[in-house]
Each structure stands twice: as C-alpha cells, then as structure tokens.
Amino acid sequence: NIVQGKKVQELENAFAQFCGTKYAVAVSSGTAALHASLYAIGIKEGDEVITTPFTFVATANSILMQNAMPVFVDIDPETYNIDPNKIKEKITSKTKAIIAVDLYGQIHDYTEIKKIANEHNIKIIEDACQSVGAELNGMKAGNFGDLAVFSLYATKNMMAGEGGIITTNNEEYATRIKQFRFHGKNDENKY
C-alpha cells in the first residue's frame, strides 16, 4: 500500500487537487523529484540547465546526475530568487531548461522567466521545495513551470521525514516520471 499503492495514489490525487494541477507523482525525495523531472523533459549529456547557486546543492546535483552542466545565474537581492534580468546573458545553444527556485516560500518571477523560456524554447522546472501552498496571482506553487518539484524532507514547510512530489499538467511528463521512478516499468502495480 505504501509503495505506489492505493495510499500513494490518494496522496498524489490530493496533492494535485491542492496545487490545482492535473498530475502529481510521488517519489522518494526532493532530489529524486528534480532528477526525474530533468529526465522527463529530455535533459541529456552536454545540455545546459540554468539555475541559481543560492539553493541547496541538490538542485545542481540533479543536473549533474543527467550528465548535464549547471549554469549559475545570480539572485535578485530583494527576493533571493534567480534574477530574470541575468538569465539571457547565460543562454547558449546548449541551454535546454531553467530550474527556478521558489526560495523561502517566494515564487520566482514567473512572468519574466516564462517570456525568456518561450523566446528560446527552454523548459522551466519550478523548484517549489520550500513553497508548498505559496500563491502568486491566485495560483499555487506547482503551476509555475512545465514541472514543479516539492520536497517533504524534515526541514521543509510540509514534511514527512523523506519524500518528494512532482506536479505537472503534461500527461507525457507524468507518465515518463512514473516509469523513471519504477525502473522503466509501465505498470507499477504488477510485479
């Protein structure tokens, strides 16, 4: 029941409903959520992923786990989140994604980052590990990227000791993440 069984499905459904997304997928940690999200959007060796250095090391480590290169962009000193004005100068032909961290419950500057991402055909992963329940313009954290990741680690604002959750409105990403968390199997309930 606790390993992708009924209780986990109940958690996923409740979390998706709480965030206002179509899908939520539970994994073992926030780091696993970041790693699975990068896998789901197709990040591979040689790709570059822009993020902030002002976050827990798991953000950069998950990029390295896909054999991609983290590219650091400084923060806005007012919000402590990645500074959208500095992102453009770091974009290259290898840039495939931005991991925007919602630090201290403050959602990143989604409007500006989304404009940049659309202009350069770059995916956004919202690292919402510290922002469960945070809102911006009537939308909850979990909706400000192609995927969003949450951590349930003991130091987070919603915790279960360990665990992570990924939210998305993209069925293909949700399916890829479910396969990734279960070693490529399509049906997690059949052993």
Explained architecture:
The chain has 191 residues and is α/β, with parallel strands linked by helices. Helices cover 31% and strands 20% of the residues. It contains six helices and nine strands. The strands form two sheets. A seven-stranded mixed β-sheet has the order 1-9-8-5-4-2-3, sandwiched between helices. A two-stranded antiparallel sheet has the order 6-7. Helix 5 links the parallel strand 4 and strand 5. The longest helix has 14 residues. It is globular and about 50 Å long. The chain starts with 5 loop residues before the first helix and ends in a 10-residue tail after the last helix. The model has no long low-confidence stretch (mean pLDDT 91).
Summarize the entry for a quick read:
The chain has 191 residues and is an alpha/beta fold. The chain has helices at residues 6-19, 30-40, 58-65, 84-87, 110-120, 171-181, and strands spanning 23-27, 48-51, 69-72, 95-101, 123-127, 135-136, 139-140, 147-151, 164-168.
